[in-house]
TrEMBL record:
Superkingdom of the organism of origin: Bacteria
InterPro entries per the UniProt record, alphabetical: Ergot_Alk_Oxidoreductase, NAD(P)-bd_dom, NAD(P)-bd_dom_sf
Lineage: Bacteria, Bacillati, Actinomycetota, Actinomycetes, Streptosporangiales
Gene3D superfamilies assigned to the protein according to its UniProt record, in alphabetical order: NAD(P)-binding Rossmann-like Domain (3.40.50.720), UDP-galactose 4-epimerase, domain 1 (3.90.25.10)
Residues annotated as domain NAD(P)-binding: 7-190
Matches recorded under PANTHER family: PRESTALK A DIFFERENTIATION PROTEIN A (PTHR43162:SF1), PTHR43162
Protein name, entry field: Uncharacterized protein YbjT (DUF2867 family)
Species whose genome carries this gene: Nonomuraea dietziae
Amino acid sequence: MTILVTGATGNIGRRVVDGLVGAGQRVRAMVRDPRAAHLPDGVELVRGDFERPETWPDVLDGVERLYLFPFAYHVPESADLGFVERASAAGVRRFVVHSAAAAGFAPSDDPSALGRHLEEERAAHRGLELMVEATGKEWTHVRPGLLAVNALGWAERIRTERTVREPYGRSGYPLVHEADVAEVAVAALLTDDHLGAAYTITGPAKVTQTEQAAAIGAAIGADVRFEELTPAQARAQWLADGCPPDVADWLIELLADALDGPGALPPTGTYEELTGRPPRAFTRWARDHAADFMEVA
């Protein structure tokens, strides 16, 4: 049996590849540049791109199960069918969809920047889920909440200044370790226990931005200072760093939404229900990624 992993060089995709290889499976990875993939020995690397339909036949040949990265919801104008439909026609009989927690939200006409963003995210991810369901093949949707790896956006400033500068230090979400998401995805690919299920995976509890900075400091053995900015100061800094204005607007609203309580995404007990273990905490994530925050020798 050949299992195809798309998005195989991403934070979660790499973990999915590792889990499948560890389980002794035959793994194929769709990658844009095989020379730069740096995946485990034994993984079949096939050049492919969701934007290039001419690459899809080689990618999909002989594949029975598929870990589907969300960019598949875009159908290039040059394609007669989308990637999902082509995969189904090629013989894929099980899809495990890398979706998002927003796919489980109710449709909304909230006109705020955050409301518009969440509705766009909901529509895109739920749209991909519906494409997969329409094939009539086996499916499982894995819907991670906000990922702890977003904290890597602080890495350069922590390495050089030992400082995090953000608004709303008390704001936070139950950030999920990418390993937890990948573990659920691998189980869905390899067993029949999760067919037809949609799982929203979060971390164990809300972790504020100040707590995140402290955890990273503890992981690297340094004092990482949290400097609280006003929303206006943060927006100006993000724009100077190249962040699009609309993204800066909804990010500020996202943080403001979780000042008191978990905001739009409270913790779920899904991971523990599925595995019998609590989700990995942010402190564990910080230890696992300590090297990313260390000064380069």
